[in-house]
Design goal:
Spore Coat Polysaccharide Biosynthesis Protein SpsA, Chain A, alpha/beta, two-stranded antiparallel sheet
Length: 325
């Protein structure tokens, strides 16, 4: 179902895409940020992903007051599906993705737009906030970097965040790219594919995207009960790394270690009894054990820990415990 407040007469320079799912009144914070933008030659595409609260009615009210705002509604499938629909509906020469409950600087669209024009992808700072306190920041200064440099920064999770937010993409390079059918970690796979379509990427610290971290959000829920989609995404990333000899070995180390940050707590919570997530993680570690053991960036102690886990043992608190099937 579609709710549009006007026909598209002139093509906007930028399409802003926001997936909506049970965000309630928190959407007003991001709408206020967009109203305050120094760059106003954009369209806003809101995609309601089957919200069960008042989100759709709130969005209908919002678009009535803005000629360049549009609302599309669909059944619930996840953020990946909502963003893909947004891409299909976008009319802008450039696209950027926002989340409804985050914030951006007033010069966000202007800075990203001008930096994106020369390289087709622009990346800015992303500040992670929890309870009004900045707890971390991805920042790469002001520079143009090669595709290989950008992929390294993305995969080692330094300077460039893994999500689609804090970035702008030209429509021509995103034309055939879509978010994969995953509930989580679909974002890093999307960004990875986009980065592979350009030779250079512009990085700027002249504007910031503010990620408002909540324990009740997707990542908070995922830490407590991780989805096997994380394993599927890790497998795709490991295959990608294996095919790219130009990438840093640290990419392997960080990718494997990141999965273990989910796997170890699951094993402890399950009292060292096997479950689907544990068993599939073990299979993945066994599949890539040669890469793990050959990785020069990985400390030998962690190689031993991953080897033990792959064969049914967990090292924790200086003890080795067997995972029961």
């Amino acid at each position: 179902m579609e709710f549009e407040n006007k026909e598209v007469v002139n093509r906007p320079l930028v399409s802003v895409i926001i997936p909506i799912y049970n965000v309630g009144t928190t959407i007003y914070r991001m709408i206020e940020c967009l109203e305050q933008q120094t760059f106003q030659m954009f369209e806003l595409i809101l995609v309601n992903d089957g919200s069960t609260d008042e989100s759709e009615e709130i969005c209908k009210t919002i678009i009535r007051n803005h000629q360049n705002y549009y609302l599309y509604s669909k059944e619930n499938q996840g953020a990946f599906s909502a963003r893909n629909l947004g891409i299909e509906k976008a009319n802008g020469a450039y696209l950027t993705f926002l989340d409804a409950d985050d914030k951006i600087d007033s010069n966000y669209l202007e800075i990203l737009f001008h930096n994106c024009m020369g390289t087709d992808i622009a990346v800015c700072d992303v500040a992670v906030y929890k309870e009004d306190t900045e707890i971390s920041r991805f920042t790469g200064g002001n520079q143009k970097i090669t595709q290989t440099q950008a992929l390294n920064k993305l995969l080692v999770r330094k300077e460039i965040n893994s999500g689609p937010c804090g970035k702008m993409f030209s429509q021509k390079i995103i034309e055939e790219v879509r978010f994969p059918f995953l509930r989580v970690y679909e974002d890093i796979l999307f960004v990875l594919e986009c980065f592979c379509k350009v030779r250079e990427i512009t990085v700027t610290d002249k504007t910031t995207y503010y990620y408002m971290q909540e324990d009740t959000g997707t990542m908070g829920r995922m830490a407590k009960s991780p989805s096997v989609d994380i394993i599927a995404a890790t497998e795709k990333i490991m295959d990608f790394i294996a095919d790219r000899r130009d990438l840093s070995e640290e990419c392997t180390y960080i990718t494997i270690s990141h999965l273990y940050q989910y796997a170890l707590p699951v094993a402890i919570q399950n009292n060292y009894r096997g479950c689907e997530f544990i068993l599939k993680t073990q299979i993945l570690y066994r599949k890539y054990m040669e890469q793990i053991l050959k990785c020069k960036a990985m400390p030998w102690k962690e190689k031993v820990i991953f080897y033990l886990y792959a064969h049914g043992y967990v090292y924790t608190n200086k003890f080795i415990k067997k995972i029961q099937r």
